[in-house]
Amino acid sequence: MVLRMTLHLPTIPDSVASDVASIGRFAASRGWVPATSGNFSRRIDATHIAITRSGIDKGNIRAEDLAVVDLHAPPPPGVSAETPLHVARYAADANTGAIVHVHSVAATVLSRVDASKGAVELHGFEMHKSLHGIVTHESSVRLPIFANDQDTAALAERIEETLGSEPAVPGYLLSGHGLYAWGATMEDARRHLEGLEFLLQCSLEERRIS
Hints:
The protein starts with 13 loop residues before the first helix and ends with a helix. With 210 residues, the protein is an alpha+beta fold. The chain has one domain: Class II aldolase/adducin N-terminal domain (L-fuculose-1-phosphate Aldolase, 3-Layer(aba) Sandwich), CATH 3.40.225. 34% of the residues lie in helices and 21% in strands. A hairpin with a 3-residue loop joins strand 7 and strand 8. An eight-stranded mixed beta sheet has the order 3-2-1-4-8-7-6-5, with helices on both faces. It has helices at residues 14-29, 83-92, 105-113, 152-163, 186-209, and strands spanning 39-45, 48-52, 66-70, 98-102, 119-123, 140-146, 171-174, 178-183.
């Protein structure tokens, strides 16, 4: 007789589904998740998250468009191929409660232009204070850039080795791909997403007119 272990996954609370649907609508309204791009997740408890399924319209996320992922088990079928990037961040930092990933023009372009530098450098913007731990515009923000890789499990491992448990900035870029941002709550993650996107857009505009 072959014994099979069955995972007992929690149901997705309405508040979690609502948070993910809300950030999806927000990102779509900004044009940051074209086609079916991007992915969003929210922590359910210490060992489980809810994450968007692959190929869905992120501006119209329904409860059935989310899947539960156990942080200590292989991702289930149908979730985004980038699920390991989410899992690794939640596992690295118990205070991470939500993760958002978008494909804006500014994030995608600058992640290519500055790929050889390993980061987008931002200096002196008031919007720096939208990021956790930064209290003055007289500061510098170094947003890391990582080379994209179809082996997302290996990519996640490399990213977390570089970031450590307490990254200086709650976000990073994948070259030619887009922005990841996170926070203790979905509200925090949204603020970091919006702040970083504003900063990236400012940087892109400055380069256009310089």
